[in-house]
Amino acid sequence: MIERELDIAQITLSMATNVRQEIIRKLRNKEVGFPYAYMAWQSLAAVKELQNNYAVQKHGVRFNMAGQRATTTKGYLFPITLGLDFHYIDSDPQRLLTMCQALVLLSLTDGLSFKIDVGTIFSFVVRLEIPLETTINLEEMNAQDLPGASDINVQIIMHTTVGFFRDVSAVNGDPQEMIIQLADTDSFNVPLPKQPL
Predict the structure, then answer these.
(1) 34: closest CA among 21, 23, 42?
(2) pTM for the predicted model, two decimal places
(3) Which residues of 61-182 form beta strands (DSSP E)?
(4) Domain annotation for the chain: domains and CATH numbers
(5) Cβ contacts of 15 within 8 Å, gap of 6 or more
(6) Taking a C-beta distance cutoff of 8 angstroms, is the pair 60, 166 a contact?
(7) Radius of gyration of the chain from its Cα atoms, rounded to whole angstroms
(8) pLDDT tens digit sequence for 72-90
(9) What angle do CA 162, 166, 169 make, to 5 degrees?
(10) Residue-wise pLDDT tens digits, 134-186
C-alpha cells in the first residue's frame, strides 16, 4: 500500500538492527541507487479501549456461515497497533520535496487505509496513521553514513487486528433433527435439544 501510494519501487521491511548499515553498504557498492526506502518494526501494543477483550478471549465472536448446521466459526480477534519507522533516502531535492508533500497529504486525508477479507466470514480495516509532522535529516556533504543524500523519517502507526478462528459446535444454529423409523412403519423426525457449552 505504501509503495503504491508513494510511488516507491520497493520498500525493504526489516526487523534487524543493522538495516541502515546494510543499506549504506549497498549504496556504496552501487547495488542499489537513489531513491531508497526502508521500514523497520519498532513496537507492538495491545488496545484495550475498543472492545471487551476478556469476553472475546472467553467466548469469541460467532460468525454464522450459510449452509452450515453442525458447526459455526468463532473468531478470537484483538485490536493492536504496530509502530513502524519509515525512511526515504534520496539525493534529488525535488523528489524529496514531493515525498514530503505526499506524506503530509496522506496524514491529513487518512489515505493509507485498506480492507482485508478473511475468506467470506470476516473483514477488517487496516489503517496507517502518519503524524502531521515529518522529520527531514538534511544532506551533509561530508556525512559518512549517507554522503550526498537526505533522509525523510516518519514514524507510522498501523492499527490492525490479530487473532485466530476456530470451528465449534453450532449451539445457536438451526435445530438438528433425528430421523426415527420403526420396522415396517413410516419414519418421523424428532428435534434434538440444544446442548449447553
Answers:
(1) 23
(2) 0.69
(3) 61-63, 71-90, 113-118, 122-129, 135-137, 150-169, 177-181
(4) 2-191 (3.30.2000)
(5) 40, 41
(6) yes
(7) 26
(8) 778 888 899 999 989 888 8
(9) 150
(10) 666 665 555 666 667 788 888 889 998 888 887 777 655 555 555 555 555 66
